[in-house]
């Protein structure tokens, strides 16, 4: 595990980058470690810098403290709700998933009954709204349907256990689980349509979903790519992208 400490010249915090899912016996210690990271970042003075250590190397990159804090908190929350069906032997995993309950089969639209007035301001939602504005500016004559899909923790946990875990391959890490769940709920197409005249319940009739997964790696969409470009130029950025695609 990369070391974490302070730099004497600016008392900055060094944060390890490995948030991969550990084995069961290491999970408790991993959560404790992330809690320490959260505590350090929460109490760090605003003018201090945070550095992210490149995995399996002694190279450090300047990181965004807010982003790092959010990642650590998310890791802790997801590990605590991690389904126990995770198993590297996919043929065994199916037997550990429960049969879908009929209450969800009767009326899938009921999943959108949550209040549309609840504002979800997670980073991807904010980015999505910004993307909508750009699309509207590029093609103002076209109708763009921006559907917000809000999922409660209770609904996520139950559908993850009864339905989604049957469908995700591989299902080895937190990332496999979180991306799989997000794609499943998006594919269901039930949410709230945000339009100029207001917000109304919506269910898509689309038969095809284009997710755009991999676009950030191909088109340098992460903040680490900006840091890489600033510190190593275009050549360094290209090497970073080639490494990720490889």
TrEMBL record:
Keywords on record: Amino-acid biosynthesis, Asparagine biosynthesis, Glutamine amidotransferase
Entries under PANTHER family matching the protein: ASPARAGINE SYNTHETASE DOMAIN-CONTAINING PROTEIN 1 (PTHR45937)
GO BP term, pick one: asparagine biosynthetic process
Organism lineage string: Eukaryota, Metazoa, Chordata, Craniata, Vertebrata
Entry keyword annotation includes Amino-acid biosynthesis: yes
Coiled-coil segments on the chain, per record: none
Keyword Amino-acid biosynthesis appears in the UniProt entry: yes
Disordered: annotated span: 1-29
Compositional bias of kind Basic and acidic residues: 1-10
GO molecular function: asparagine synthase (glutamine-hydrolyzing) activity
CDD domains: ASDURF, Asn_synthase_B_C
Pfam families with a match to the protein in the record: ASNSD1-SEP (PF21975)
Designated name of the protein: Asparagine synthetase domain-containing protein 1
